[in-house]
Amino acid sequence: IWKITKHGLECVGVLQGHRRGVWSVCFSTREKIVLSASGDGDIKLWNLKDFSCIQTFEGHAQPVYKAVFISNDRQILSCDQKGLVRLWDVSKPTVGSGGIESTDDSVGSRVFEAHEGRIWSLVLTPDESGFFTGGEDETLCYFQDVTQQMLEEHAKKQEDFIQTRQRLDNLIEQKQYAAALRLSVKLDQPKRALDLLENLIFVDDDDLAGPKYPRRRARVVDRIVPALNGLLTKQSDTDDGASSESLVQRLLTYLVNWNTRARTSLIAQCVLSWLLTSWTPEQLIQWPGFARTVESLLPYTTRHYQRISRLEEQLAVLDYLCELANEHQVLESINNSFKEEAAGGGLEPNVVDLNLSMEVTEAID
Spans of the WD repeats (predicted)? Predict the structure, then answer.
C-alpha cells in the first residue's frame, strides 16, 4: 500500500496472505478497506489501519482476475478464469480454518455463467444498475440488476394474495361454496379446500337449503356435488378464466393426499366418485400422470374398503345386541307386572319367575 507524498510514493504497509499473484485491487469508498483478487482463487478484505486480513472469500476453483465492490460495499462481484461471475454478500461471513473468517461457495455466493473461458474485464455501469463482462471467447455480456423489480413483484403478489384470501373468507361467509372452492383450488390451498368440503358434508341439511342445495336428506356425495361443479364453470366476471381441467387435475392431486389418512378418506372418496362420473375414461387417461395417480389411490382405497367392511360387520352385531337389550327390557317390564299381580294374590311369584326366565333364555339363544 503506497501513500502519495510531495516527494513521490511512500510504502506504508504490505498485505500478506495470497499464495499466488494478485490480479485485482479495489478500494472501498465508505470504509478504510481494500479488496484483492488473486490467482490462488481467493478474494480477501484487508483493514488499511493495521493491514490485517478481515475476511477471505473462498469458492472460485480458478484464478480470480477481477473483484469490485457494489451495493454500497455490501456486496462483491468477481470473475475468474473459468468464465464464471460470482456475487458475494459481505455481511455473511463464516469462521474458517485457523480462525480466519471465510465465506464458502454454499453460503456466500451466487454464480452466473458468463463466458466460455477467461473473463478479462468486469465493469460496472455508472448507476450500478448492471455490469459488463468481456471474455476470451470474443463476446461482451451485460447483466442487469432486477432486484428492485423482483421485490416489487413479490410485494404485489403478497398484496394480491391477502386480498384474495379475504375474498375467499367472504365467499364462505356468504355460503357461495362453489365460488369459494374454485378460488381455493386456484390459489393452491388444499387445506382450505378440505375444510370447505368437510363443512359441506357435516353441515345440517337446513343450512344447505337453496336453489343448488335442496332441503332434503342428501347422500354424502350429493352434498358436495354443487360445489365441485363450480370447478367446471366460471363463477364471476373477476374470475381469471383458469382452465377447468387444470383445476380438477390439481384437485385430483389433493385427494391423493387426503386418501392416505382415514380421517380425510371420506372426502377423498366423495371427490373421486364425482370425478369418475363427470369425466369419461378416455379423458382421464389423457391427463398427465393419471396412471401413477391411480396406482397411488388403489392400495389406500382397498385398505379403506376393508376397514369399512369390518365396521359394517361390527355394526350388525351391535344392532343385534341392541335388539336383544330391547326385548329384555320388555320382558323385564312384563315380569314386574306379573310380580305385582302375584303380590296381590293372583299368582305365585316363583312360577312367574320361572316362566319368564325360560322365555328370556330362549330369546337369547
Answer: 15-56, 57-91
